[in-house]
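Lecture 7 notes: from sequence to structure.

We start with a single chain of 195 residues. Read the sequence below before looking at the structure.
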Amino acid sequence: MIVSTEQLLMEYAEYKSPHHKIQSLVKQGELIPLKRGLYETDRHIAGYMLANVLYGPSYLSFEYALSYYGMMPERVTVYTSATRNKRRKKEFQNRFGVYTYQDVPAAVYPYGYTRVEAKPYPYLIADREKALCDELAILPPIRGRKAFEEYLFEGMRLDEDIFEELDPGKLKKLAGLYHRTNLDQLIRMIDGREK
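Now the structure, written as tokens:
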């Protein structure tokens, strides 16, 4: 269970030094620090379930989501999440893993992610199309269709069979909201494949 310092101070208010009690519980491993002022009591919780809690609003996306869906062969060890209007990258590291947060354009933030009802914590994750668009949006511009396709299927090692399963209409609709060169390339590539 996630608990805040404020909750713990109220719970241990009868102690002479509630702060020392909290420090003692951390040393004993009963409280696991997540970030300043926030703790987890379950040492076996899956790290991805904490991503939306640590910093928000956010949803899991980018490389983590692409790996989660099997779109990339590499196992991703960093929980990468999308935020909006934060204007800077953020990173947290704790016992459960490394968590990074990066802005996506506010116009696209509300679309293309779902809430997964998991216990003990539900979490938000981008769908396959949105995760791909988010990842392409943060990359330096790739010029030329051939270079773009090479990067997708050789550089990123994106699974071509899974790519073919993606909804082209949804991809084009999302990609058009980013106003980024790589997403314009994606739209052109989809249009070229549909002919």
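Residues 4 and 38 are 5 Å apart (CA to CA). Keep this in mind for problem set 3.
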